[in-house]
Design goal:
Layout: H1 2-25, H2 37-52, E1 55-61, H3 67-74, E2 92-96, E3 101-106, H4 109-120, H5 140-152, H6 155-158, E4 159-160, E5 163-164, H7 166-181, E6 190-195, H8 203-206, H9 209-212, E7 215-222, E8 231-235, H10 244-254, E9 259-265, H11 272-284, E10 290-295, H12 304-319, E11 327-330, H13 332-339, H14 346-357, H15 359-414, H16 418-464, H17 471-481, H18 487-496, H19 498-564, H20 582-588, H21 605-626, H22 636-696, H23 699-709, H24 713-745
Parallel strand pairs: 1-8, 1-9, 2-7, 9-10, 10-11
Antiparallel strand pairs: 2-8, 3-6, 3-7, 4-5
Length: about 750
């Protein structure tokens, strides 16, 4: 990474030198306000892009696999504290910086209340609230009544599939943490910063579910470690979180990443949750971005042979998902303890000493750490960072060549008489008109091409999201076909009542639908989006070829015109810009994909209708008993009402799914795919025009102005020659830098 940091510094310095050169050249009389405008814009764009370019690395894996410990080891300190609770859904983003600080984004009151309202749909009991309005956690009466209602719930309502009911946990966490955050939250998102000595205070929020439930986002900036400032490390929620919406949020981040580090604990090996999550990553089309890290604990392995046995098993299992997986093994805690050796408590110091004494495992961890660091460096610098830097160097090379040509031609004009200058101006003006027509033609044709691909993208998107034959139809089929074993709930009706049982059934069906969305539907959506991105790229790469030929022909003709006028030709650069990196174009244009993590929304009318049906069935049963008709059980009415309630619940779920997909389809089209097509078209046009701007503009302007202003020709000539020489030196520096990047790639 050190080499690429030096290259980045060289890039920024060359960019600054070119801007300084332009400022000096603008002092020449006869240089109009627009003479260097396009070049200055490009230099400014490069400076902003280098500052904003971010390489994202997602650290994912199952709960307790050692993700946070691994990230801490990268930054050589115990900075992250993460709770493994069921309500936290935060992706903690970490950057290296010049100071230690934590930024926390808190949800608005409206967002918190909305989450609570959804958790309260079908909440058992009908008399726990005295009011009829929407719940507002800021109201003391609402908090008190909800607390009493939660306290009254029986144990079997607090557990679902042997785990804590996520809705009950969320409600309890909101109540428990309210007093600590009531003076922080507001009507809009609030950002709090903890810097320097107060940095540790942020851990109280991210490590406690009662406070983390109020957080929307977390970003840490750490002044330690060797990670580059342009690399973002994200510590993600456990992939086996019991809340499927958390998985969807991780998926949203993964599609933005350039690398995925999947952490597997050697203690557990590859679990079913890992296989399921990795299958989703493969379905998303980003499995090739993943490298695998087996994090081992010294105390779990009697020998190196035992660890190698585990690694072999993990490798064989991973190969079923990704052939020839890239696997590294190390002890993250061993690495972290060594970084913090002087500050470790006595207990941890003794553990570290014991581990150091296990030479085979310690050496194996060191070797694995070295191999892993090399792999990270290769993937992030050679395969990604180098591409970004090389493209910027190419653009600066075009500018330096253009300024040199401008200086050389104008220096030549200063040595000519007025008659020759007029002939040159006329010749260049004739060529400029031709290039203007070519510009207009390219712009018009590209606009037409955008409309054409928009129609294709619209058709593909509508087909994919078609509710009868597209992906949403699979979700609807799952919901319709989902079977609830009603007999398992019969005893619940007896022990907890109808309302509470309806709540449990609701939780089961909602969780099943959300899980299917996260594990099956969302990966398909992300894969589709990646396919459309590739379609856009291929379409414009194909379109670019004839335009590039046109531009090259125009520049060749321009050189021919210069030769006829007795002016030295420009040095043609036949290399074209990079249109292969759609992600770079997307990020530069500020285009953001709408999140796929959406929850099903339900109304309390489900419960009202179920209770009404129960009343009707109870009347029927009353008359059955009155006329001595057979009754299957004492809760037959409740079971029939429960069956109808499930039917109604499924119907509401289908409506919610269809609404969400229709809304998402339109957002995808108009807020992402269409905008991306426009941005790629604009990038193609800008890349082609850069070559025109740097070679065919603004030469005739000074030629006309020289005679009018009576410029000191000797002074102007000296400045122009100095400018040309400086440009040649800059081009040599650019050439050397690009060669260095190419050599590093080999």
């Amino acid at each position: 990474m050190e080499k690429y940091n030096l290259l980045k510094d060289d890039l920024l310095q060359i960019n600054q030198d070119i801007m300084a050169l332009i400022s000096k050249a603008k002092t020449l009389p006869g240089t109009g306000a627009r003479t260097f405008e396009s070049w200055e814009e490009i230099c400014g764009d490069i400076r902003e892009r280098v500052a904003e370019e971010m390489l994202r690395v997602a650290v994912v894996g199952a709960i307790k696999s050692g993700k946070s410990t691994f990230v801490n080891s990268l930054f050589r300190g115990d900075y992250l504290k993460r709770g493994a609770g069921v309500v936290t859904s935060i992706v903690t983003r970490i950057h290296r910086s010049d100071a230690l600080r934590a930024r926390l984004w808190f949800k608005s009151w409206a967002a918190v209340n909305s989450e609570i309202e959804q958790a309260l749909v079908l909440f058992p009991g009908k008399d726990w609230r005295s009011g009829n309005g929407t719940f507002d956690i800021r109201q003391e009466a609402d908090r008190k009544e909800l607390g009493q209602a939660l306290d009254s719930l029986k144990t079997d309502l607090l557990l679902a599939n042997d785990t804590l009911n996520t809705n009950c946990v969320l409600l309890s966490a909101c109540l428990k943490g309210y007093d600590s955050v009531k003076d922080i939250l507001g009507d809009e998102t609030v950002v709090r910063q903890y810097e320097g000595a107060t940095f540790g205070e942020h851990r109280a929020f991210v490590g406690d579910d009662a406070l983390a439930v109020y957080l929307r986002d977390v970003r840490l900036e750490i002044d330690a470690g060797e990670t580059d400032e342009n690399i973002e490390i994200a510590d993600c929620q456990g992939s086996d979180s019991p809340n499927p919406l958390h998985l969807a949020m991780i998926q949203d981040y993964l599609r933005l990443t350039h690398m995925i580090v999947y952490v597997i604990s050697s203690r557990t090996g590859l679990r079913q949750a890992d296989i399921k999550f990795l299958s989703g990553i493969k379905k998303m089309g980003i499995i090739d971005n993943a490298i695998f890290l087996v994090n081992f604990d010294f105390s779990e392995h009697d020998s190196l042979a035992d660890l190698e046995r585990v690694l072999g098993k993990v490798r064989d299992e991973l190969a079923l998902i990704r052939p020839e997986p890239e696997i590294y093994a190390l002890s993250a805690l061993f690495n972290l303890f060594r970084c913090m050796e002087k500050d470790l408590p006595v207990k941890d110091s003794l553990r570290l000493a014991q581990w150091k004494g296990d030479a085979p495992l310690a050496s194996f961890s060191d070797q694995g750490s070295g191999r892993f660091e090399t792999a990270i460096r290769r993937k992030l610098t050679r395969e990604r960072y180098a591409l970004l830097l090389s493209n910027h160097f190419r653009r600066l090379g075009i500018i330096a060549s253009g300024i040199e040509h401008w200086a050389t031609v104008n220096a030549d004009l200063l040595t000519r008489d007025a008659c020759d200058v007029s002939a040159v101006v006329a010749g260049l003006e004739a060529h400029r008109k031709k290039t203007d027509r070519l510009r207009s033609m390219i712009r018009s044709t590209l606009d037409g091409a955008v409309q054409k691909i928009r129609r294709s993208l619209r058709t593909d998107t509508d087909r994919f999201f078609d509710t009868r034959y597209g992906m949403p139809a699979n979700v609807i089929r799952f919901i319709k076909g989902y079977e609830t074993d009603l007999q398992t709930y019969e005893s619940k009706i007896v022990s907890t009542g109808f309302s509470a049982t309806m709540y449990l059934v609701f939780q089961e069906i909602k969780r099943a639908a959300d899980t299917f969305m996260a594990e099956s539907a969302n990966p398909e959506v992300i894969r589709f989006i990646r396919e459309q991105e590739e379609n856009i790229r291929e379409y414009f790469v194909t379109i670019a070829r004839p335009y590039e030929t046109m531009v090259q022909d125009a520049l060749t003709e321009y050189n021919k015109t210069l030769g006829q006028l007795g002016i030295p030709p420009l040095r043609e650069d036949a290399e074209n810009g990079n249109l292969t990196d759609v992600a770079e174009i997307r990020d530069a244009a500020g285009i953001r994909l709408p999140p796929t993590a959406t929850s099903m929304h339900y109304t309390a009318s489900i419960k009202t209708e179920a209770v009404m049906k129960l009343g009707m069935y109870q009347i029927v049963l009353f008359f059955k008993k009155l006329f001595r008709k057979p009754v299957r059980s004492e809760v037959e009415g409740e079971m029939l009402a429960l069956r109808d309630g499930i039917s109604r619940l499924k119907h509401e779920t289908e409506k919610s799914v269809l609404f969400n997909f229709r809304d998402y389809r339109e957002n995808i089209k108009f807020q992402y795919i269409f905008k991306l097509a426009d941005a790629v078209s604009d990038a193609l046009y800008a890349g082609l025009m850069e070559r025109f701007d740097t070679h065919t503009e603004n030469i005739s302007e000074m030629a006309r102005m020289v005679g009018e202003h009576g410029v000191d020709k000797d002074e102007a000539l000296a400045l122009l020659k100095e400018t040309a020489k400086t440009c040649r030196d800059l081009q040599e520096r650019i050439r050397a830098a690009r060669e260095e990047i190419s050599e590093a790639d080999e």
